[in-house]
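Structure in, sequence out. Go:
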């Protein structure tokens, strides 16, 4: 049984959470073996989440007032559905808080948001080696989109494509 003072809570992030968000992003990158790819700064997150025109949003998961994880999401759009959806960029729960249903709490919250706002779908990526996450996602009804391949253009290739090669 969860003690009242240990009851989890999910809330919208505020600018005061920037250091926590940044720490969780680095922890997630370490877990995913992608730490060398983190180039974002706290200032980048501040502008994206709390600037004049925020295009991304974050949730903080707390247990007993202690940050236990976070989720970062944004709106996308489906031309086939003709409606927006929510793309979950990251969900991270610190190891000592795993197994308490916190991830499920995040997905239920965002699913309710999709339904309440009349959006079309909830989507995210998962690394193909992350079996615990894949098992969890299948348990909540997610369906893998195996017929799709992710494509990405970054760095010098992006500059060349934009006609701004160095």
């Amino acid at each position: 049984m969860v003690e009242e003072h240990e009851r989890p809570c999910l809330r919208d992030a505020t600018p005061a959470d920037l250091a926590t968000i940044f720490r969780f992003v680095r922890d997630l990158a370490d877990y995913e073996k992608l730490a060398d790819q983190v180039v974002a700064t706290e200032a980048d997150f501040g502008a994206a989440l709390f600037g004049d025109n925020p295009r991304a949003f974050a949730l903080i998961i707390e247990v007993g007032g202690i940050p236990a994880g976070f989720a970062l999401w944004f709106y996308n759009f489906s031309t086939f559905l003709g409606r927006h959806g929510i793309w979950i960029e990251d969900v991270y729960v610190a190891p000592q808080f795993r197994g308490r249903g916190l991830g499920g709490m995040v997905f239920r919250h965002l699913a309710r948001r999709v339904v309440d706002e009349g959006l079309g779908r909830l989507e995210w990526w998962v690394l193909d080696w992350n079996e615990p996450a894949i098992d969890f996602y299948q348990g909540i009804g997610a369906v893998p989109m195996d017929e799709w391949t992710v494509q990405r253009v970054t760095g010098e290739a992006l500059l060349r494509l934009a006609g701004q090669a160095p």
